[in-house]
Every structure is written in structure tokens, then in C-alpha cells.
Design brief:
Elements lengths: L1 H28 L8 E2 L2 E4 L8 E4 L8 E10 L4 E8 L7 E7 L4 E9 L5 E9 L2 E5 L3 E6 L1 E6 L7 E11 L5 H5 L4 E9 L9 E4 L5 E2 L3 E4 L2 E11 L4 E9 L4 H4 L13 E3 L7
Parallel strand pairs: 3-10
Antiparallel strand pairs: 1-4, 2-4, 4-7, 5-6, 5-8, 8-9, 8-10, 11-12, 12-17, 13-14, 13-18, 14-19, 15-17, 16-17
């Protein structure tokens, strides 16, 4: 019984070694598989991103456009790159927007111009006929309101009263939410007894005896607020500056940027790129 067991063990060892030798021979003749294609994605607009977020202006002409671009690695000529978009509130599946056919193999670049009206998520898929080969990560492009300001006049002395009408232009779906928001007015004033002074560096919340009217609906896509400032200048030269903002609620109506961007602080820089 002992000798039989030793013989079985020898046979098992030979079988394992033989199997390893066969596997090594097979590995030597199987060609290496090509790497799967990959797709990168990025977004850009004419406006500098804020905290990394790319955004456009609603109905803002060239400032309302964004470019979705990237590279496709490992592609073959004739394969198709398709841009998909999913607009706020993201309840519908991403839908194809446009496509391009790759003219060559290897690493290729792509670019699509888009004009979102609400925050939109984009991704690019690579197809060989109907077969999905690769999908990019998702990239969001955000949208901010458009608008205009009228009013303002040469100041009376010694007390100046300035009235401005702020018209906000936006998608009709967001009108009711945006109209109800609190408006934060900021004001700054520099005086000089010898000529016109430089502009103020800081603007202060509710300074200049600021007064803001309730929003007035103009039509389905436009509303108006009236903002008034009253301040004393005497006989001095003066430089006044003001801004107004509302806090972003992109998760509620698809407008603005995610996060907090200074609107409502006690003071803001006159040159601040974005308040929301």
C-alpha cells in the first residue's frame, strides 16, 4: 500500500509538470490582444471656469456656446463617435445629439459645439456599426441667466439717487423659482476733493441705502427688479459701483453653478468674476 501511494504521487507530479509545459507552449502562440479603445472628454466655453465648472450664458450668442472635445485612442477608421446629452432635471435617458465618423485609425481628436439652455450632462460613445466599443466619463456644462440693466443718470448734489431696472432673461421653466429669490444688492463709493477718484475695491451688502423691489414678470422668460441707491456726494468727485446677485439653486431649476460663490456675503470684490 505504501509503494502504491508513492507511485500515485509520482504520476500526479508528472501530470502537473506536463500541464504547465503545454500551457507555456500555448501562451507562446496566442497573439496579444489589442487594447480596448478609450474616450476622454472635456468642456470649454468663452468664459473662464469657476471652481472648475464650465458654464455658458442663456441665449448669450457666442457666450452661450460650449465645446465638448477630447481624444479617442485605439479607434479604427470608419468607427463612429456620438455625443449624448442629458438635460436637467436628468429624468430622461441621455439622447444622441450628433455624430462624426472617424477618418483614420489610432488616436483621434473630436469636437462638438453645444448650446445648452439648462445644466446638461454630456458623454461620448464610440461605435463600430451598432456595437458599443467605449464610453467617455460624463462632463457637465452649466447655464447662467442673461439680462440687461437700464437707468442711471448724472447725480444731483449734494445727495444722489440712482435707480436701475434689472431685467433677467432665462428659460420659462425656471421663471417662478428665480423670481421668488432674495436679491442681494452691493454698493461702493469713493469720494475725492480733487477730481475723480479710483473705483472702490470692495462693495458692501445693502450699502448706499439700497432698496430692491419685488420681481415683476414681463413675460414667460423675463422678469424685472428695480434697485435704488441713495448716497451723499456733496461737491466731491465720486466713483460709485454696484452689483446685485441671487444665490444659485442649480439642483432646483438647472440654472447657475453648484456650490456657494459669495452671493450674500457682507462684502464682495467689485471685480469678482462670479457671484452666486
Amino acid at each position: 500500500m505504501f509503494s502504491t501511494f508513492r507511485a500515485w504521487r509520482r504520476a500526479a507530479v508528472v501530470a502537473v509538470i506536463g500541464g504547465a509545459a503545454i500551457a507555456a507552449q500555448l501562451a507562446a502562440v496566442v497573439p496579444a490582444q489589442a487594447a480596448a479603445p478609450t474616450v476622454t472628454i472635456a468642456a470649454a466655453s468663452k468664459i473662464k471656469p469657476v471652481t472648475g465648472d464650465v458654464y455658458v450664458v442663456y441665449l448669450g450668442g457666442s457666450y452661450g456656446n460650449a465645446t465638448i472635445h477630447g481624444t479617442i485612442t485605439g479607434a479604427a477608421a470608419g468607427e463612429i463617435a456620438t455625443l449624448y446629452a442629458q438635460q436637467f432635471p436628468y429624468t430622461k435617458a441621455p439622447a444622441p445629439v450628433r455624430s462624426l465618423t472617424l477618418s483614420g485609425a489610432g488616436t483621434r481628436t473630436y469636437s462638438f459645439t453645444v448650446k445648452p439652455t439648462l445644466a446638461t450632462r454630456y458623454k461620448v460613445k464610440l461605435f463600430a456599426k451598432s456595437t458599443l466599443l467605449a464610453t467617455s466619463p460624463t462632463k457637465s456644462v452649466y447655464v447662467v441667466t442673461n439680462g440687461s440693466v437700464t437707468g442711471g443718470a448724472p447725480c444731483g448734489r449734494p445727495v444722489c439717487k440712482e435707480t436701475f431696472h434689472v431685467y433677467t432673461v432665462l428659460p420659462s421653466s425656471a421663471l417662478s423659482i428665480e423670481m421668488r429669490k432674495h436679491v442681494y444688492p452691493y454698493f461702493g463709493l469713493n469720494l475725492s476733493s480733487v477730481g475723480v477718484p479710483p473705483p472702490p475695491t470692495w462693495l458692501h451688502l445693502n450699502a448706499g441705502h439700497a432698496s430692491v423691489s419685488a420681481a415683476r414678470r414681463i413675460n414667460a422668460s423675463v422678469y424685472e427688479n428695480t434697485i435704488t441707491f441713495t448716497f451723499t456726494i456733496g461737491n466731491d468727485g465720486y466713483y460709485m459701483a454696484w452689483r446685485a446677485c441671487t444665490r444659485d439653486t442649480v439642483s432646483a431649476d438647472g440654472l447657475g453653478l453648484p456650490g456657494y460663490h459669495g452671493c450674500g456675503a457682507s462684502k464682495v470684490l467689485r471685480t469678482a468674476a462670479y457671484l452666486g
